[in-house]
């Protein structure tokens, strides 16, 4: 199924500790071109840490990370920007790569924030800023996108639209995506592979496999498992038979 | 009125202002004001060593300031002391050691005031050469590391994740800071170099809405401060450093009116 050429980043038994406390341990996963890998898990389970290991932000790690691309777009979970910097959305788009006007406009219009182009970053609302962060990450047409809670603070309709956009980007650019999300409902529609973390890999596989897994149920509760499987179920039925739409 | 020494001072001062403009912006953005102070205080040690060993002043200051900067980075990793305490420790101890060394050098007459506050009479053609060549070099390197340095100033992890190597940019920037202090010490004096870095950039922050504009305004502000400051220094017979910084302060106060206006416009 997966040829080695398609691998963008590969973690082997990776772990990271600060002051003798393991933030995460023994994580093995790989992200391939055109595939979406989602990390789920409770707070403090090491999702962001795993993403930072994959990105090479944490360097003194256990195990190994092999990265096969330099074209990376990153949406961090927390970003504190110092407002002593006069920074417009336009300047922010050019932060790590020199882009032409058209690529900037395209990316901004994809996430629905073209009108904010000349606004100061400090004047944006949380949701607007999140859309700008996503626009910046996709504008450079990356091979690997790492999205840490990319739709936090975005309104409900926007959230669905942005997840659809993420799926579309993965198809169009054929880029691999490492996604972190709390929202089990929305994410699962697009995800190819789920890794459930709780300081270590508690289980992993396709969304439906993970939903059935007992450890997952123990971690998230019976209800979460129903969400996941129900979504899968609904998904199966809505998009079948040459465009025919069947109701559940 | 335009004696030779004045023209020399003017050319030297303008050269300094062009370099302190962009560096000063980074000093403000990265909150390095006290770091600048520490480096410039340590410059006294560099000056005294230069005198005692008959060595080039700018080069000696550059080496000592770089060493102090590297010591600071090392101590930050090795001790549990907060950053500002380490900065204070290095700033004052290097200033003190510098003054003690001066005490020993009884055979040389020192113009302490000139050292601390700048002396336009002392600017030689060779100084102008050091300022313009050194300054051009600093600006060239700054241009080369601009992208990673700026990106990591906005957000370190973004820069690191997207492969820009922010640690290297930071180390190079530290060396550039030592460089600007070395070339501007004669003009502004070691107590006031940080002012030359910060005040024009702070003025520029008040009137700009993008990083590029802030850099340009900061350079213009620095140039105006040097011109205004040196003329008044000549007119009132005051030290060059304080006169330049006072002129910069004057421009900063003017820029505050611009903020009030823009806040009014918003409402």
Q: Please, what is the average pLDDT of chain B?
A: 88
Encode the helix/strand succession of chain A as letters: EEEHEEHHHEHEHEEHHH
The count of strands of chain A amounts to 9
What pattern of helices and strands is seen along the backbone of chain B?
Answer: HHHHHHHHHHH
- Count of DSSP H/I helices of chain A: 9
**Helix percentage range of chain B:** over 70%
Unreliably modeled segments of chain B: none
Tell me, briefly, the overall form of chain B: globular
Structural class of chain A: alpha/beta
The pLDDT mean of chain A sits at 82
**Terminal Cα separation of chain A, in Å?**
31 Å
Level-1 CATH class name of the largest domain in chain A: Alpha Beta
| Name of the CATH homologous superfamily of the largest domain in chain A | P-loop containing nucleotide triphosphate hydrolases
CATH architecture of chain B: Orthogonal Bundle
Biggest interface pair, counts: A-B, 26 and 25 residues
Strand and helix layout:
The complex is a heterodimer of chains A (248) and B (267).
Chain A: E1 7-18, E2 21-32, E3 36-40, H1 47-55, E4 62-67, E5 72-75, H2 89-93, H3 101-110, H4 126-139, E6 144-148, H5 156-172, E7 176-180, H6 184-187, E8 193-197, E9 201-205, H7 207-212, H8 214-220, H9 222-238
Parallel strand pairs in A: 3-7, 3-8, 5-6, 6-7
Antiparallel strand pairs in A: 1-2, 1-4, 8-9
Helix pairs in contact in A: 3-4, 8-9
Chain B: H1 4-29, H2 33-53, H3 57-78, H4 83-104, H5 112-117, H6 125-154, H7 156-161, H8 166-188, H9 193-207, H10 211-236, H11 240-266
Helix pairs in contact in B: 1-6, 1-8, 1-9, 1-10, 2-3, 2-4, 2-8, 2-9, 3-4, 3-8, 6-8, 9-10, 9-11, 10-11
